[in-house]
Amino acid sequence: FKKAVSYNPRNVKYQRNLAGALIEKGNFAESERTLKKALELDPSHIETNYMMANVKYQLSKPGEGLTYAKKAVNGDPKSKLYNYQLGLIYEALHDLDNAERYYKEAIKIDPDYASALTNLGIIYKNAGFYDQALTLLRRAYSLEEDNYMVNNNLGSIYILQDKYADSIPYLEKAVALKPREKDPRFNLAIRPN
Q1: Theoretical Cys-Cys bridge with 154: which of 77, 108, 120, 170, CB 3.0 to 4.6 Å?
Q2: What is d(CA 121, CA 71) in angstroms, rounded to the nearest whole number?
Q3: Distance CA 51, CA 12 (A)
Q4: In degrees, to the nearest 5, what angle opens at C-alpha 144 toward C-alphas 142 and 149?
Q5: What is the pLDDT along the chain (193 residues), one digit of tens a residue?
Q6: Residue 32: exposed, middle, or buried by beta-carbon count in 10 A (0-12, 13-18, 19+)?
Q7: Cβ of 67: how many Cβ atoms within 10 Å?
Q8: Taking the CB of residue 94, how many other CB atoms lie within 10 A of it?
Q9: Do residues 190 and 159 touch, judged by C-beta distance below 8 A?
């Protein structure tokens, strides 16, 4: 992709393809520079705006990613991915009302979107809406049984509801999925025998 960009640096598609390859390699800083060039050439390109929003989020710059994420959603409001990314950015900015709004929109577009179900479930759990959280997280679990976040949060909700026996399989699975994570181990330790 670098050769294509060096051959024709004004080609937005080449810039975007290079940025995509850099994102896949986890090189977000260089992909940010590449996407900046692509957006200078075509500032309204929906996918490029989405990619920049994602990169800004990955670089812990959600405030800088907000405008790009909004452009992507405005350009394609029926994209579950773009709505989900905007939800992630709002959540990172602690704007939970808007995060909820865009996670719900992603779920409306695709009721089986496990990532949006999970994140919305965690927002509800943290707000103390355990029944709503359980509904969403159980649905996410039915789609992705081997998801650490789903298992850990299901287990922790059951702990919060004093349903220790119900928490065990989820917390044990969370430990198996990510043995170095402390949260599920802590939750397993506090349950009564």
Answers
A1: 170
A2: 26
A3: 13
A4: 110
A5: 666 666 656 667 777 888 888 899 999 999 999 999 999 989 999 999 999 999 999 999 999 999 999 999 999 999 999 999 999 999 999 999 999 999 999 999 999 999 999 999 999 999 999 999 999 999 999 999 999 999 999 999 999 999 999 999 999 999 999 999 998 888 888 756 5
A6: buried
A7: 14
A8: 8
A9: yes
CA separation for the pair 37, 40 (Å, rounded):
5
Q: Could you tell me if 124 and 133 are in contact, meaning their C-beta atoms sit under 8 angstroms apart?
A: yes
Of the candidates 82, 40, 42, which has an alpha carbon nearest to the alpha carbon of residue 65? 82
**Cβ pair 175, 169 in contact under 8 A:** no
Q: Count the neighbouring beta carbons within 10 Å of the beta carbon of residue 62.
A: 20
Amino acid identity at 115: S
Q: Are 54 and 85 in contact (CB under 8 A)?
A: yes
- Residue 94 to residue 16: CA distance in whole angstroms: 30
Residue written as tokens 């922790």?
Answer: 156
Q: Find, among 90, 118, 93, the residue nearest to 102 by Cα.
A: 90
Whole-angstrom Cα distance, residue 87 to residue 10?
32
CA 101 vs. chain centroid, Å, equals: 14
All residues at 6 or more sequence positions from 50 whose CB lies less than 8 Å from its CB, including other chains: 68, 69, 72, 79, 81, 82, 85
